[in-house]
């Protein structure tokens, strides 16, 4: 077992719903509900799940970009949630994020060099004399041209913009990067380039990734471990090969059966889920998945299953295996 | 850029021509003309004498003919002679313009300096008590009628407390010269400037607040926070810089209006600015002065639009004028 660079314990994020004349808090959207996992240094954890299951919120609360409701995140022995603002700011360069949308996450009135280099200067990561060269080197590494340094974001294509986002995160010499659906806004040919870039950079710099995606093929390709989320909670977690060859949770099964196979002769056995994803403001009782589960039993609607290990670091929360 | 300017200039001339015609028609359609107003108290005047006077003042023509008479002179730079002042229109405007400027410039600068930080604070602390208080002040500023607010100020600050002079530009009983005269002017202008400032804070503040709110929720602000920048940097270099464009644009548009005068304020405080003079012109049917003033305002407005466009192109790297 390697060194755990990040440990998430019982992370919760509830968004209040206000209503009525006085705008009192009447309910909560449980976007993230009791999520725990850890990532080893140099590894990649893939986080998958449907839209709206709380993947992105996990990534953002983890880095304290939005305040968590409960839980702790231990980064290299420090609890990020207990750090003072100033101390957190000092540590920010080490924990970076690449956002999902490369169009809106770049300030439109800043030249690329400034977007990438601003925080480098702010945190004094390189001496002043080497600053411009440093920014250019990073751009070069991320597949951007050096003469792009004085251009503005609107002059770039989507793929180039995502490279700028990656270069921006990487310029800060991070140790841990949350990649929040970094390729979902790009078309497939560009996706492959960006994934390869992320992998190369990881190898070179020994980065640790939390890779958030709904694209299972991409996750299988890039991740060492995979966590499957449903309605704000982890339902299954395990080493990638183990999980993909032996999925336990019915939800994971359903997800995996939806992966397209590039062979028209293969007959697919799709597990089609009934109904829509329930509202996280009012999640079902017991196991949150029981309303759509093809193998639901009586107990499922009454008691929430335990999230526990079934050997080989394979975690699952399902009554099918609890006896 | 050059092409853009030429095109805009040609367009401006066309607009001015149209505006001048419409304004002239409206002025001439007014029920009582200068002769009626000026001779109202002279009972012995026969209609023939009135017609002679009209001929003398050039008011005997139809609207179209009169307009082209005025226009053919105006295009050479001669705006005619004011009926009431018996001086060239350009001179009348030129004499009074600085009073308006002296009233407008300080209050525009002051209100911007106060309103921008207020707007930023209100946006950063959205829905807090601070926000509500600042917004309430802004709404009062926006909705308070000038004449009412001016009367209130005069009632309390001038009559009750005697801090400021009631109206006028200089102390009529003291014949100040040189620097003392300037100080006296400043003293008399303080209250109108103060009132103008308070009344115009609201609009700018709401404008800044709305724009800031929009920007503060943008994704790239989250990026800036994720970079580990200080909150001060996030708000001022990232968020505020992006709200500067609409702000600069609106301020550039305001620039020419510094010269255009404020009819109500100047009237209440007896400040002989462009607004004061033009109101007088309207009341007495002084056609050349009204035309001169209207064309002057319209030209300023067009310059304002042009300045706004140029400012916009300079502040936003994505806009290129062509």
Structural description of this entry:
The complex is a heterodimer of chains A (323) and B (322). Chain A starts with a strand and ends in a 6-residue tail after the last strand. In chain A, a hairpin with a 2-residue loop joins strand 4 (70-75) and strand 5 (78-79). Chain A has 323 residues and is of the alpha/beta class. Chain A has helices spanning 55-62, 85-91, 112-122, 131-141, 158-170, 188-205, 216-222, 240-245, 250-257, and strands at 4-19, 24-40, 44-48, 70-75, 78-79, 95-98, 176-180, 208-212, 225-230, 233-239, 307-309, 315-317. By secondary structure, chain B is mainly alpha-helical. Helices cover 74% and strands 0% of the residues of chain B. In chain B, helix 1 (2-29) packs antiparallel against helix 13 (287-315), helix 6 packs across helix 8 and helix 8 (178-216) crosses helix 10 (231-254). Chain B is globular and about 85 Å long. The N and C termini of chain B lie close together (6 Å). Chains A and B meet through helix 2 and helix 3 of A and helix 9 and helix 10 of B.
Beta-strand fraction estimate of chain B: under 5%
Say what oligomer this is.
heterodimer
The arrangement of helices and strands of chain A along the chain is: EEEHEEHEHHHEHEHEEHHEE
Shape of chain A: globular
Query: In which range does the helix fraction of chain B lie?
Result: over 70%
Strand content of chain A: 15-25%
Helices and strands of chain B, in order, run as HHHHHHHHHHHHH
Distance between the terminal alpha carbons of chain A, to the nearest Å?
Answer: 29 Å
């Amino acid at each position: 077992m390697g060194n755990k660079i990040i440990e998430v314990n019982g992370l919760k994020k509830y968004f209040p719903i206000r209503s009525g004349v006085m705008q009192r808090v009447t309910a909560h959207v449980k976007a993230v509900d009791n999520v725990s996992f850890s990532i080893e240094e140099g590894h990649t954890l893939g986080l998958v799940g449907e839209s709206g299951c709380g993947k992105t919120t996990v990534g953002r609360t983890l880095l304290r970009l939005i305040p968590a409701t409960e839980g702790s995140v231990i980064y290299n022995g420090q609890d990020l949630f207990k750090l003072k603002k100033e101390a957190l700011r000092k540590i920010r360069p080490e924990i970076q994020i690449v956002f999902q949308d490369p169009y809106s996450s770049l300030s439109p009135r800043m030249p690329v060099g400034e977007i990438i280099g601003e925080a480098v200067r702010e945190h004094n990561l390189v001496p002043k004399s080497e600053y411009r060269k440093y920014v250019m080197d990073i751009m070069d590494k991320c597949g951007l041209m050096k003469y792009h340094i004085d251009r503005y974001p609107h002059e770039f294509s989507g793929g180039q913009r995502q490279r700028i986002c990656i270069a921006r995160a990487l310029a800060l010499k991070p140790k841990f990067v949350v990649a929040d659906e970094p390729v979902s806004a790009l078309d497939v040919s560009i996706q492959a380039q960006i994934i390869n870039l992320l992998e190369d950079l990881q190898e070179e710099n020994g980065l640790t990734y939390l890779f958030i995606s709904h694209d299972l093929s991409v996750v299988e390709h890039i991740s060492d471990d995979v966590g499957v989320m449903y309605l704000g909670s982890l339902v299954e977690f395990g080493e990638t090969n183990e999980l993909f060859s032996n999925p336990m949770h019915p939800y994971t099964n359903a997800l995996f059966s939806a992966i397209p196979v590039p062979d028209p002769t293969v007959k697919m056995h799709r597990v089609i889920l009934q109904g829509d994803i329930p509202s996280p403001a009012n999640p079902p009782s017991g196991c949150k998945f029981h309303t759509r589960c093809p193998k639901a039993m009586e107990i499922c609607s009454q008691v929430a299953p335990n999230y526990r290990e079934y050997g080989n670091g394979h975690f699952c929360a399902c009554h099918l295996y609890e006896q | 850029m050059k092409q853009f300017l030429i095109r805009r200039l040609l367009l401006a001339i066309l607009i001015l021509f149209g505006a001048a015609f419409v304004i002239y028609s409206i002025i001439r359609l007014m029920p009582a003309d200068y002769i009626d107003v000026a001779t109202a108290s002279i009972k012995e005047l026969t209609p023939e004498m009135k017609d002679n006077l009209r001929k003398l003042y050039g008011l005997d023509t139809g609207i179209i003919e009169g307009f082209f008479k005025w226009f053919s002179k105006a295009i050479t730079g001669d705006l005619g002679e004011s009926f009431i002042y018996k001086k060239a229109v350009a001179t009348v405007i030129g004499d009074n313009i600085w009073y308006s400027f002296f009233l407008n410039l300080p209050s525009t600068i002051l209100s911007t300096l106060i309103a921008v930080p207020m707007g930023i604070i209100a946006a950063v602390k959205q829905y807090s008590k601070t926000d509500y208080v600042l917004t309430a002040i802004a709404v009062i500023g926006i909705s308070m009628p000038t004449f009412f607010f001016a009367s209130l100020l005069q009632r309390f600050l001038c009559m009750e407390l005697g801090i400021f002079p009631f109206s006028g530009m200089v102390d009529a009983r003291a014949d100040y010269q040189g620097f003392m005269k300037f100080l006296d002017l400043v003293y008399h202008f303080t209250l109108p400037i103060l009132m103008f400032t308070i009344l115009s804070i609201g609009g700018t503040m709401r404008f800044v607040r709305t724009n800031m709110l929009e920007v503060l929720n943008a994704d790239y602000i989250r990026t800036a926070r994720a970079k580990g920048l200080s909150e001060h940097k996030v708000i001022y270099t990232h968020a505020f810089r992006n709200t500067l464009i609409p702000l600069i644009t609106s301020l550039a548009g305001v620039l020419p209006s510094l010269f255009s005068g404020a009819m109500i304020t100047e009237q209440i405080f007896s400040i002989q600015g462009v607004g004061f003079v033009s109101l007088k012109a309207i009341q007495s049917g002084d056609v050349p002065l009204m035309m001169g003033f209207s064309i002057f305002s319209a030209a300023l407005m067009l310059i304002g639009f042009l300045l706004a466009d140029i400012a916009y192109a300079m502040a936003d790297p994505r806009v290129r004028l062509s």
